[in-house]
Amino acid sequence: MKTTGGSDDAKRRAGESAAGLVLDGMVVGLGTGSTAAHAIRALGRKVDAGLDVRGVPTSFASRQLARDAGIPLTTLDEVDAVDIAIDGADQVAEFDLVKGGGAAHAREKVVDAFADRFVVVADPSKVAETLSHPVPVELLPDARSTVAAAVGDAGGAPTLREAECKDGPVVTDNGNFVLDCEFGDITDTTALSRTLSSIPGVVEHGLFVGLADEIHVGTDDGVDVRTR
Ligand SMILES: O=C(CO)[C@H](O)[C@H](O)COP(=O)(O)O
């Protein structure tokens, strides 16, 4: 699993803190990334101890990890509600996020937005005053040049995400490409989110605006929790 950001201990504290919110009978959205992985492993230990939950994975990677951890799985088609979603972020400013470092943001946004309570888990390296991390944009492969041009018109500098162990671009779990789009400081997250969503060929972008309910930031000796 891809690892970014700060210390693994801080990520573990954040993940375990969020997993502690899960109660018997809940349906849980299972995020993607190294911090969410700590929450999934902690949840697996609670399942071992007798907790009855069902997980909705947000990626191939989180599905595999949840299976290995012994968490019973379900899908959005089979549940009426997701009680809580626990997911990481590449950057957090107040309650707005940039996500998609693992190219899973399209499914993550569906699950995180549907959840009654969306809990973000992060380490201190992710926290900023203003979002400035490049925004991942998942797009239909045929639309690469037209989406890149539209991102440029919107003031962004797009870079096609290249795979590390394969020649050519990253291909998402949905069979699409990702453009990492540099916008500098993003002062109006709502406007940029709307602009990116309106581009034909964009499947989903990694700006998560107005979705997070709670942020758990693991520190050297504990967890800072912020609630809306
Ligand atoms: O959005 C994501 C995957 O698409 C991840 O949650 C994000 O990249 C953070 O990952 P990590 O916890 O490994 O730093």
TrEMBL record:
Involved pathway(s): Carbohydrate degradation; pentose phosphate pathway; D-ribose 5-phosphate from D-ribulose 5-phosphate (non-oxidative stage): step 1/1
Active-site residue numbers: E108
Source taxon at top rank: Archaea
Keywords for this protein: Isomerase
Keyword Isomerase (UniProt): yes
Enzyme category, top tier: isomerase
Annotated Pfam families: Rib_5-P_isom_A
Gene Ontology MF terms: ribose-5-phosphate isomerase activity
Similarity comment: family membership: Belongs to the ribose 5-phosphate isomerase family.
Subunit structure: Homodimer. Homotetramer.
Name by which UniProt lists this protein: Ribose-5-phosphate isomerase A
Originating species: Haloprofundus marisrubri
